[in-house]
Amino acid sequence: MKKKWYKGKVxxxxxxxxxxxxxxxxxxxPLGMRxxxxxLPNVALNNLKDEIKDLGTEYVETYEFDxxxxxxxxxxxxxxxxxEQYIDILYNxxxxxxxxxxxxxxxxxxxxxxxxxxxxxxxxxLQAALPYIGRPAPIxxxxxxxxxxxxxxxxxxxxxxIPNMAAYSMSKYAIVGLANSIRLEYKMQNHNxxxxxxxxxxxxxxxxxxxxxxxxxxxxxxxxGFLYKFVDVKDVAKTVLKASRKYKREVFVxxxxxxxxxxxxTSIKVAGNLLIRIEKSKIKIQQD
Length: 288
Known about the structure:
Elements (H helix, E strand, L loop, with lengths): L2 H4 L3 E5 L4 H10 L5 E6 L3 H12 L4 E6 L5 H15 L4 E4 L15 H22 L5 E2 L9 E8 L3 H4 L5 H23 L3 E9 L11 H11 L10 H14 L3 E4 L4 H9 L1 H20 L1
Parallel strand pairs: 1-2, 1-4, 2-3, 4-6, 6-7, 7-8
Antiparallel strand pairs: 5-6
C-alpha cells in the first residue's frame, strides 16, 4: 500500500497494550489512521492512547476487550463497524503462551485456555468483523470488489513446532492455516483483502520476565549465541508495517528463521535435532 492509502483509514487491533501490540500501534500512528485499540483494561492501554495521539493518528479510541467473551466481542466490533462503516485493517494480535505439553504435565484446562484465546478468539473477532472488513474498491471487471487487510500474529513455532510448548505450537499452526484459507477465499470472491501472517522468533517481552528465575534464564540463554538471541519487539513492529506496505503474505522475524520451516519440510531430522538441542540447552540453564 502507498503511504497515502493509510490516511483516514480504520485500524483495529486486539492485544493492543502488549509489548508487540503497542509497538505496532506506534509504527502505524504517524500514518494518520483512525485507530481502535482493544485489550483487557490496564494502565498501559490508557497511556498508549495518549501516546498514539501525540504520534499523529487522526483519531484513537480504546475499548475493554476480552477475546474469550463472545458477547463483548460482538458488541464492540459492531459499535466500531457501525460508527466507521468499514474496518480497513484488522490486526488479530491477542495471544498467550505457556510451557504446556502432553509429556511435561500440561493440563487440558491450560491447553484449552491457550486455544480459547489464540484460536477461538481470532475466529470470533473475524466473524464479528466480517460485514465491515474492507471498503469498496470496484473495478470494471469486479464491481463488488473490496480492499483491505487482515493481519495475524502467529509465530515461528507455528511453522516448526517446539519441544515442551505443544499447546502454544498447535495454536500458532492453527493461525497459519486460518490465514491461508481465508486468503484463498477472498481471492475466489475477487476481493483485494490482503491476508498477512507474522511469524516472529521468540521476542523479548514481559512473558519471559514474569519471575526472577525466568529473567535470569533469559540473560544466560541469550549469551549462548545468535541462535538463542531473542527478537526485539521494535523489529517485529517494523516488519509488520513493512509487510502491510508491500503486502508480504507471510513474514519471519528475523528473516532467516524461515529456514527452520524449510528444514522441517526438507529434513525433519535436521530441524528436529536443532530444536531439541536448543531446548536441552534451556533446561540445562534452568538447572544450573
